[in-house]
Specification:
Elements: H1 3-7, H2 11-36, H3 48-54, H4 63-96, H5 102-110, H6 117-135, H7 142-149, H8 151-164, H9 167-176, H10 181-192, H11 194-210, H12 213-217, H13 223-233, H14 235-267
Helix pairs in contact: 2-14, 4-7, 4-8, 4-11, 4-13, 8-11, 9-10, 11-14, 13-14
Length: about 270
């Protein structure tokens, strides 16, 4: 038996770890689902609150919740566009022309992980005073801050894909065949970086949908801040929307795994 085989955990240990980790995630989620189905003082459980949410019969008191969902969707779209338009071309340019700046770019992109959200908000407050005068105080302006928050996750997703392919050889081969740089990037590099770009996009969406601190401190209405407001009026409905947001994040992760797995099988 090889050394790797001897060090590998036994099947029962793998199953035990999987059960423990699964329990850590599933028990709170099952408790949340059970909570939303309680009938109060009458006792028992039913799906009346879930039906009310899916039929839109939750009243105008939850208008803030729908506003928060709409703002979060817009923020997710704008944040992903910022990442794709600013970060990805920069990473490709550094990989092709300035490989010596790779560590500098990595340091700058990972820096937001070391800065607490409250410190980030204090630093962004003067910036948003200027942004407010120039572009208004719409919730979409939060995408500028979210673009900074998602940098570490988006950078890691794209960089791992760049490191897995020979981006220099691909670009030089395309250039030797007469392709312009826009064609090289859009028709050669982007398809080969599809897995990393999709992962960066989906992780950015998940981060935007789950972010609360920056939106709350900058007084913007997003899904998370709206959930806090809604929970003060009806905790059951707030938990239902939190579960739906969690389900959406799970679906995103499954899509990433599905796309990545399909890509791996084709290349092998």
């Amino acid at each position: 038996m090889s050394a790797a085989g001897r060090l590998a955990p036994s099947p029962w240990l793998r199953r035990s770890i999987l059960i423990v980790i699964g329990g850590v995630f599933l028990i709170p989620i099952a408790s949340m689902v059970e909570f939303t189905m309680r009938r109060g003082l009458e006792g028992g459980h039913d799906f009346s609150r879930w039906i009310a949410v899916f039929t839109g019969d939750i009243g105008s008191a939850y208008r803030t919740l729908w506003e928060g969902i709409g703002n979060s969707v817009v923020l997710a779209i704008v944040t992903v566009v910022l990442v794709m338009v600013l970060l990805v071309p920069t990473m490709i340019l550094v990989a092709l022309r300035f490989p010596g700046l790779k560590r500098v770019l990595e340091f700058l992109c990972l820096l937001p992980l070391t800065i607490p959200a409250i410190v980030l908000v204090v630093g962004l407050a003067p910036v948003y005073q200027v942004v407010g005068r120039l572009a208004g105080s719409g919730a979409w302006t939060l995408a500028l801050a979210y673009g900074v928050l998602v940098l570490p996750f988006a950078y890691r997703a794209v960089q791992s894909n760049i490191d897995s392919i020979d981006i220099i050889t691909l670009s030089e081969a395309a250039r030797s065949l007469g392709a312009s740089w826009p064609v090289v990037v859009l028709s050669v590099l982007v398809p080969n970086l599809r897995r990393g770009l999709l992962a960066a996009a989906f992780i950015s969406v998940a981060v935007v949908l789950g972010e609360f601190t920056v939106a709350s401190l900058l007084s913007r209405t997003t899904l998370q801040t709206a959930l806090v407001i809604a929970s003060k009026a009806d905790a059951f409905v707030a938990v239902i929307f939190a579960l739906l947001a969690l389900l959406f994040a799970f679906v995103l992760l499954l899509v990433i795994g599905r796309i990545g797995g399909g890509r791996t099988r084709r290349t092998t």
